[in-house]
Structure formats: structure tokens, C-alpha cells
Amino acid sequence: MNLKEIIRDLNILNIKGSLDKDILNISYNSKKITENSLFIAISGFKKDGHDFIIDAINNGATSIIVQKEDVLNKISLNQNVTLITVPDTRIALAKVSDNFYKHPSSKLTLIGVTGTNGKTTTTFLTDRILKCSNKKTSFITTIESFILDKKILFDRTTPESLDLNSFFYESLNSKVKFSTMEVSSHAIDLHRIDFLNYDYFIFTNLTQDHLDYHKNMQNYFNTKKKLFIKEYRNLYSGKGAVINNDDLYGKQLIKETDLETISYSINDKNSDIFAQNIINNTNGIEMDVLVKKLGNIHIKSNLMGYFNVYNILAAIGVSVFLNIDPLFIQEGIKQMTGVNGRFEKIQEIKDFTVIVDYAHTPDGLENILKTASSILNKDSKIITVFGCGGDRDKTKRKIMGKIAGDISDFVIITSDNPRTEDPQSIIEMIEEGLKESGNKNYLKIVDRETAINNALNMANKDDIVIIAGKGHENYQEFKDKRIYFSDQQVVKNWINNS
Q1: Integer CA distances (angstroms), 455 to 407, 417, 445, 490, in order
Q2: pTM of the model
Q3: How far apart are CA 410 and CA 45, in angstroms?
Q4: What burial class does residue 279 get, using C-beta atoms within 10 Å of its C-beta: 0-12 exposed, 13-18 middle, 19+ buried?
Q5: Domains defined along the chain, listed by start
Q6: What is the pLDDT of residues 403-414, one digit of tens each?
């Protein structure tokens, strides 16, 4: 594609060199640059793309987009290299990616799922319903991403705008018509979804998370809110919104959004979608869902927990917008057996129940513990194993400790991903909350595998062991290394050695 076309509608401060050249590839990674490429220098959290401009040129870049004008003082550019200066290269990356791949998201029905908890399961549920209605689909989650039946690997859990546009382009080439994706607050704030053409948004809930980045809940909410308000409609598009009417921030969004809205609830009968007669146990969920536009839909699901009731309602909501037959909605939900690391029951253990869950926020932990409590047999106990990640929001550690102490019968505080922090220090912060709860039945075990094994060894018949925090992750991050680690595998090793 001609460079002039690629930079169409880009906010440009300065251009040095010719725009009349063909570009065969674009990248923000100098290692992925090939002949006749465009390199966009992104200032990241750990590395600055401006430091790799010479590498990019040596690998074949003929055009460079930068936001730091002083870069010219540090490098000597080949006369054949075009240098384009912009105010923000992240925004530029989103624009040139959309142009280069010829606006692929505008040719799909694109659904964005945002919120703190429930994004992954809601995305899976939505995709399963679409498949049941004979739609060709693709989806992106933090766990895995697929185009039809082909698994797609990304370098990061929240793909950059270039990777997203490439994904949607490949989706179109595979005759996909519908795509569903998780939308994180980082993706919004770092312009990774700028210029994508969404049709519908789902808002699951908003609870404390990512405050190390956003600093406070208002900033966190304001970032999410951009998807739902008229001010940003030219940036994200959008026709309709499915919003949780039982969430305080959801209620606010319903008042502020300019989009056609479908609200869902288990408390408010006036909502557009309302769940009643809910049966929730270890066999799953059964309920009646009253949909204003469709009437009653009887739902049976293998998923467990009231938080999954909400995820199901959200998926029903977007199905209503898409005019999907209730029979396909029922069947799609019924077919959804679970998501790796999301209230995942380890089936090999029969005497007691072991649940692995990604819960790493106060609300997420409280939800899974309350769910466990609601299905717990009399005289049985809940044993909880969890930690908190290092280099992340420290304020939630004490809160999560108190929640675990309030609801669990026994708690083992352990490591999550300590990163650059001292694991023992993180554990002590969590312990403050345990002490505040008054629950003295707890242990502190730094090594996560040992902690899990201790929990399994102390479990009796009909007890529930909750292993929270890492879910689908198969690694642990330390200051100087990342090692393979899977909560599920530790449990299976314990079974084999018992």
C-alpha cells in the first residue's frame, strides 16, 4: 500500500522525505521489520521504540513514525528513509493499522465486553451462542483467541492495535461475520482500540482493580465510560449497550450513555432482562429469564455461581440485539461447560471439591467464596489458598485478606506473582486483613505449591478448597525469572501421589 494511503487522516506535525513509496509491512517491533516496512516507535513501560530506530532501518524500514522530535539529533537517517513526526505514536499506530488493513472491523459485527470481572466467561458465552445460531465467529480473550477453529497467539494478553486489525483482517479472510473481544481499561487508555468499529458493548461490573495504574476508582470508571458516551462515538462507533443494572457504576452508565440500552438484573424486575427462580448448586445453574422483547427463556447451564448468572444474562442481552432465536440462546448456554481457570472444578477429585479461579480482586474473591459458601454442605468447611500480585495495587491486599477471613473456615496465604516485590512482605500485608477479620485459622506459606498441597491434605469429605488468583495462568513471575507453574497441575500431581 502507498504510504500516502496508510497515513490518511493521521495528525502529523512534520514530514521529512518522500511519501510516494510502497509499504509492504508495518510493525512497532524492530525485530519484525522486513524490506519496505513502516516502523512506528512506541514508548513502552519498559522499552522505548525510539531506541530501536536504527535496528528497524537496518532490517528494511523505509519509513518511520516518531513522537520524539529530538530523535533526529541522535541518529543519522538514510536519505531514502521518510520520517513522520506525530503527537502520539500510539494513536498513530491505531490509525495506520486501521488504514493498512482497510478498516476490517467495520466489515464485522464487533462486540466489546468490558468491566472488571466476568469479561472472559461472557465472551465465551456470547461466542458459543453465535456458533449455535450458525454464525461464523472469532473471539479474543485473555486466555485464548480463535478465528473459527484456529487458535491465534498474541504476544500480550491485551493485543496492540496493529495485532487487533490484523486479527480482524484474517477473520474476514476466513469468512467470519461476528467477532467478540474483551476490552480492558489498559486497551482503552493506551489507544489499542482506537478507530475500531464496534456495534455493541457489554458492561459487566466495576470493582477495585488496576489502581496501581488508574490511581483511583473514578479514573478507572472514566476510562471504561468512554465506550458508552457520545463524546467518543466517532472513535469507537457503537449502536447498543448491554449493562448490568445491579452494579452501581452500571446504573450510572445507563443514565449517561447515548446508546440504545438493554439492562439486566437479578434484583430489579423493571430491567429489560430479569432472572428469577434461580437454582444454583454444584450441578450448575437453572433459572427463568424474563426478556421484555422475547418473554420467558428457561436456562440450564453447567456453570456455577451467581456471578455466572450475571455473565449469562449479559450474553443473552447482546443476543437480543442480534435477534438470535431463543432456542439458540438456550442451546449455546447449555453447551458452555466452563472456562479454564474460571471457577474451574477439578473433576478427578471426588471426596471433596477443588475450585481453581482467576479471582484476583476483592470483588472477585468475595464472589467465588460466597458462591462456595452457598453450595457448601452442613458441617463442611471452605479452605482458601490465595496471594496477591507484586508491583500491582497494594491497597487491595488487606481488603482481600479480610474477605478471605470473613468467609473461609481456613486460609493459607501464599505467593501469586511476586514480581520485583518480596513475597513475604506481600503476605504480611494480606495478613493484616486476616487479623482484622478475627479468623485465626490460617497459615502463611510462601511457596505456592507447598501451600496448595497443605490445603489438599487438610481437606475432608465434602469440603471445598478454593485456589484463587492465577486461574488459567501457567507461570509464576519473580524478580529475575518466570517459571512454569499451574495450579491445576499441582492438584493433579497431588492426586497422582496420594
Answers
A1: 16, 19, 11, 12
A2: 0.87
A3: 39
A4: exposed
A5: 3-92 (3.40.1390.10), 104-335 (3.40.1190.10), 344-497 (3.90.190.20)
A6: 999 999 999 999
